[in-house]
Amino acid sequence: MSDQHHFIPDPEGRVPSAQGYFGAYGGKFIPEALVAAVDEVAAEYEKAKADPAFAAELDELLTHYTGRPSPLTEVPRFARHAGGARVFLKREDLNHTGSHKINNVLGQALLTRRMGKPRVVAETGAGQHGVATATACALFGLDCTIYMGEIDTRRQALNVARMRMLGAEVVPVTSGSRTLKDAINEAFRDWVANVDRTHYLFGTAAGPHPFPRLVRDFHRVIGVEARRQIQERAGRLPDAVAACVGGGSNAIGLFHAFLDDPGVRLVGLEAAGHGVDSGEHAATLSAGEPGILHGSRSYVLQDDEGQITEPYSISAGLDYPGIGPEHAYLKDSGRGEYRPVTDDAAMRALRLLSQTEGVIPAIESAHALAGALDLGRELGPDGVVLVNLSGRGDKDMDTAARYFGLYDGDGSGDGSGDGDGDGGNEDAGETK
Amino acid sequence: MSGTAHPQRGALLESALATARAENRAALVGYLPAGFPTVEGGIAACTALLESGCDIVEVGLPHSDPVLDGPVIQTADDIALRGGVRIADVVRTVREAHAATGKPVLVMTYWNPVDRYGAERFARELAEAGGAGCILPDLPVEESEGWRKAAEAAGLATVFVVAPSSRDERLARITAEGSGFVYAASLMGVTGTRESVGRDAESLVARVRATTELPVCVGLGVSNAEQAAQVARFADGVIVGSAFVRRLLDADGDLEAGLAELRALAADLAEGVRRG
Question: Which PROSITE patterns match (chain B) (predicted)?
């Protein structure tokens, strides 16, 4: 293991540019009060990258704390529903804290310590980034405040309890759509007001430069490991790699190692909620247009006068009207494909993986699984699909139980609900 | 607009500020979002500020995600957006407030609505309405070239915000590209009324003055005459936003009562800037 490094930043000379642009996307649209802090993060990251001690400490943590490398699991019983193609799961759900988020969090926590800042703020949607951040803050002795949309604190109540158990302050956000977008707004406000002693530990590969690059680099390990593992296991590269995209961090972490493999399709699965045509979705690349949200230019769900429209997804982690700028770049260049997956399709995939393989995925990751079912059918029995299982589903059991009617006394049945029944609509009704 | 260059970018602003200086006082700059509590009410409110002591008004173009504003302005923005305010309404607010008083009126907003609308189109329409300029606090100087060209062609000032954390060489770069005045954000933080105005403000103003002849106005945190007088001792202008918005919010739908409160506060603050 010792020859395998986990911190594998992208080599120089590729995107983004020095100004943080991936083609037409990215940049730094921030208030003057944050310019010095954001520049400090960028400068510290450059120094850290060049410091072998930083890489060594991060590698040590990723090995012995997170548990890297994460396994690659073939799922043949699930794959029978995918046209017979071989399907492999990159098991980021088995990382400590239960998702890919810890990769980025540990890297930024080390940066926070290097910058001498005693406090961290972060946003969270599904609670996975919040839990990972609270975990790292406990580990490093940092003060931790997590902003979470009020709707998300309800649908991911387990993660709220986990964060508080870890010693973090969790602040429910009641403005706007009361979901991830508004949690980011509130975290930005806190950062502006407390920037001298606070690092904003941004959780996805979006936001102002350098966050899209930095978060991507900390997640590159996902794809680097998976590429090696699948060649060992399948004897070749996959035909497609699939990942869910909210802000896009787990997807870019997986995709990046395959950018130079032209035979590998990079497929991002967006939350289509009740359907892209319903107007209730979070399918930013499918239905959005270029604009500025949370500090960078990318695709955004917005109206004709640049007001951000409220997204919807059953998945708190994908319920976001923006997307990281590198995904916008990959979409426009044609290298990346982005497809919408509805709530119902994702929930069916969640149940299918649970009942065929004994693995309960996060609802976010279930979007990628639903996409993989389609990809497998398109590729046929000779196909190989690699899916990033970005998180585990414990946090989602309440939502899933309501959706499928799994609670005793629900009256909604026997647990075999087919996913388009009242449960799904009921949940949607709560969120809008 | 014909697209001809206007060498006197922000001339109306600078003359308003020069007049205040000639009177040995600071100027009073008010802020209210357009469309709040209604489009007509917002026009009346902006006009009331200019009639009651404000030398300049900033009209906010409400945004769904006002990350640089505190809860008071976000609440007002939400009310305006729920009421269906459009950019055309913002432009009309500028036109009518300016026409009624002859005083300079700016727009303050976030970059996405302007970018989406089209910088040139927005600048042209704002200038045609008599607008004096625009403040775009989430558009840092290095991303601002496209906007500045559009603003310059339309004869609008581009007012940049500076912060206590801005280093001197950065201040010089920002003030070299700005026009009208420099907006010094006195506290690190979002908009909202505060008990005391930050100590950083005075040293920030001094550092800005070392880089530019432009007037320097201080905002973020001023809510009463005492604070206005304190800031007026070292700044060319005192910017007040949330305190005005709060008065209108507290009037809870009674527009006449809200306007009376605005006039009273504007008069009080105007006395304050003359005391400094």
Answer: TRP_SYNTHASE_ALPHA
